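Incident review: delayed structure delivery

Summary: a single-chain prediction request sat in the queue longer than the usual turnaround. Root cause was a stuck worker, restarted by the on-call engineer. No data loss occurred. The affected request and its eventual output are reproduced below so the record is complete for anyone auditing the incident later.

Affected input:
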Amino acid sequence: MAAFILAHEEAHIQLKHVRMIGGVTDNARLRRLELEADCAAARALGAAQPEAIRAAVRFFGSLGAVRIDEFHPSGTERVSRILGCAGTTGPGETQRSRPAHAGVDQGPDLS
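Output delivered after worker restart:
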């Protein structure tokens, strides 16, 4: 999970995300920025570190519809974005292969 969080935070910097614009914080905009950083992290880690993506999917999947605060998307939203950006169609699946018994614990197969 640490590798994913680091890649996520690096993405905020590379994408030049700023928390406030003109002294105003827009929660919906901040949630979009979080999803953008999740996507960039998933792409950066790609097939080289599938275990980091699996860990993120497990963690955010455990949150379900819960948001940790008003600035972050729900766990479900984050899992969907991470899997989509990592080139998967669902937990444990790639767009090229679909294991018959894939589950969140297995994580994305990024081979």
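Verification: DSSP finds four helices and no strands in the chain.
Action items: add queue-age alerting; document worker restart procedure.
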